[in-house]
Write a structure and sequence with these properties.
Strand content: 15-25%
CATH superfamily of the largest domain: CoaB-like
Number of strands: 21
Number of helices: 14
Bound molecules: cytidine-5'-monophosphate
CATH topology of the largest domain: Rossmann fold
Mean pLDDT: 92
Shape: elongated
CATH architecture of the largest domain: 3-Layer(aba) Sandwich
Largest sheet: 8 strands, mixed
Distance between the termini: 26 Å
Amino acid sequence: MRGKSVLLIIGGGIAAYKSLELIRRLAERGVTTRAILTKAGAEFVTPLSVAALTGEKVYDDLFSLTEEAAMGHIELSRSADLVVVAPATADLMAKMAYGLANDLASTALLATDKTVLMAPAMNVRMWESPSAKRNFETLKRDGVLFVGPNDGEMACGEFGSGRMAEPHEIVATIETALGGEGPLKGIKALVTAGPTREPVDPVRFLANHSSGKQGYAIAGALAAAGAETVLVSGPVALAAPANVKLVRVTTAREMLAASEAALPADVLVMAAAVADWRPDIIANSKLKKSTDRVVPLIRLVENPDILATLASGGARPRLVIGFAAETDDVLENAVAKRTRKGADWIIANDVSGDVMGGDRNRVHLVSETGIEDWPEMSKLEVGARLAARIAEQFKET
Ligand code: C5P
């Protein structure tokens, strides 16, 4: 990253204070920052703080004659290697999605010939509103890169998705966007996520509450760290994370076939909640209630254990990581599972609370050398930390 430059657009959100930290972290890595502060942004951080940290004047006026003489908005928009918008407010995202250009920030976004990376930050309701979602999709289609938003508590007191990504996450994404080597560059990763559905008849199935959030977060983090990542997912309502190849499946047997087809890989992370059993016969037509009130008997047969199969197969990845979702005796079960399934690591989590479907997780990493207890954090943070841990492991071996 050393020697590169970033044009940072600071929008008007409470997360703007994190952008000051971002400038410092970039400077530590030898990246120079030139900043545009929007009018609303200046309500949250002062031009003086931004100027002091960037070591440059702060740009805030589209119609400044003196600036146009020295460096016009067009030139400013192209002066850096990458344009970063942090915080990217709903307003800035909407302006860019629609091509509005009525101030310096929006004009620079429209005029630039460089990649734009946005770190959205807004209230959860705003982030989940149909228009913000639409603008997000439009911008992604237009090639804009995104980091975050993360889940968690917000300055407004509400809880949910919309927190700006942390400065270190933005720096990591900037590094990748600038063509830097991610710590997992050259590594192939296979991740499974979500539940499986085992059909009973054409309209019914057996499944579980897995939302896929943890597995998707892991796949996203591995890809952000530079790994070539395939995500084999059961039916969930999530979009594919950036730079991840998504393969959708329904049943455990399909998940096994798709995972085998995705090998070889260096690391396997089996976060899917695979159904242990499936009905032995799938009825061709919908089962009917009988008049004599005899209930149908659904006989179950065991599904293949994907983790154990891949861990003992010829194309075993170098690092095999399984999950142990337990409601009782979490750690004992995880330790036993590691050996039984032939995994190198087991990520153990207690699912007796609202972990399944929730946004937060508290996990333990069980390996040959012992047990690491991780504090409670968002599933996205668990993903990032696991990706960092995997990178460390590969560096050692
Ligand atoms: O035995 P249990 O289901 O608790 O093991 C959990 C781990 O094994 C998870 O990593 C899960 O993805 C994997 N698994 C599997 N195939 C199954 C059942 C579980 O790969 N049929």
